[in-house]
Amino acid sequence: MRNRALRLVVRSASYAIAALGLGSSAGFAAGDPAVGQQVFSSRCSVCHTTEPSMNRIGPSLAGVVGRKSGTEAGFDYSPALKAAGITWDEKTLDQFIKNPGADVHGTKMFVSVSDDDDRQNVIAYLMTLKP
User: What backbone phi and psi angles, to 5 degrees, belong to 32?
Assistant: First the structure.
């Protein structure tokens, strides 16, 4: 009887931990990549490309998720972004895109995406881009 109760507690705890893990990323994973591509095309593509190693006013965003800030080859980053030491993920991209100058004082990026849904959609799209 005691072993059965212990197994039940362990199983319940495992389910709770799994649910917490899923719940913690749900806010960031809620974006729609197809809608994000449309937002990117209208708001971001003037400065950024999604082609690897093809930089414009801003760096290529191909493979940006998981990349360290200020490291895209061939782009002249601000000293502030080079020194920021940010690894781009859903959370850091959300914070930066919301207000780049407040997040990294001295960045060259001046365009923000203030709408929460638009940001989540753009981030979902960026997550699909491979280097």
Answer: -105, 115
